[in-house]
Amino acid sequence: MERIEKILIDERTIAKRVKELADRINEDYKDSKSELVFVGILKGAVYFFADLTRAVKIPAKLELMAASSYEGSETSGEVRLLHDITEPVGGKDIIIVEDIVDTGVTLKYLAGLFKSRGAKSVRLCALLDKPSRRKVDIKADYTGFEIGDDFVVGYGLDYNQRWRNLPYIAVIDIT
Ligand code: IMP
Questions:
Q1: CATH topology of domain 11-149
Q2: What is the pLDDT of residues 36-67, one digit of tens each?
Q3: Residue ranges covered by each domain of the chain
Q4: Which of 47, 68, 136, 156 makes an SS bond possible with 104, Cβ 3.0 to 4.6 Å?
Q5: Atom of ligand 1 at shortest range from CA of 99
Q6: Taking 80 as the threshold, does the pLDDT of residue 72 lie above it?
Q7: 174 band by pLDDT with thresholds 50, 70 and 90
C-alpha cells in the first residue's frame, strides 16, 4: 500500500491561494452582463470547487461534471464523460474548475466541448499545474500552484480513489 511521503501544500497555504483566485475572478467578471456558471469536475475538484465558489461574490450557477482519463497513476490519453451537466450553456460565461492539469488532455477536451455548445466564454481554473507533463497545448486562465512531476493526493485528489479526504496536498510514494 502507498504511503504519504511529505506534505507539499498545507491547509493554510491552500486557503490563502484559493481566496486570491476568487478575488481575481470577482474582479474579472464584475462588469459582465452574462450569466456566470462554474463547472466543477468530479471527483478531484470537489473541495476546491466548494471553497472557490463560496469566495466568489458574483451570483453564479454551479454545475458538476464527471470525466475520467485516469487508471491508477497513468493517463490513458482518452477522456470519458461519465456525467454531464443539465443546463444549456449557450451565451453564458463558463469557468471550468479542475483539480490538476497534467497532460492537459482532459481540460482541452472539456474546453472544446463547452465552446462547441455555444458558451459565450470559457475559462479554465485549476488548483494545480504540472507543466512538465504537458502533452497538449493548454494553459489554465487561473492556476493555484505549479508543481513538479510528483504524484500528489489530498484536497480532492486521489490514488486509486484513496486519500481524497486529506485536508492538505501530499506527495505519495507508490513504489
Ligand atoms: P490530464 O488530462 O492528464 O491533464 O489529467 C487530468 C486528471 O488526471 C486530473 O483531473 C486528475 O484527476 C488526474 N491526475 C493527474 N495528475 C494527478 C496527480 O498527481 N494526482 C492525482 N490525480 C492526478
A1: Rossmann fold (3.40.50)
A2: 999 999 999 999 999 999 999 999 999 999 99
A3: 11-149
A4: 136
A5: 10
A6: no
A7: confident
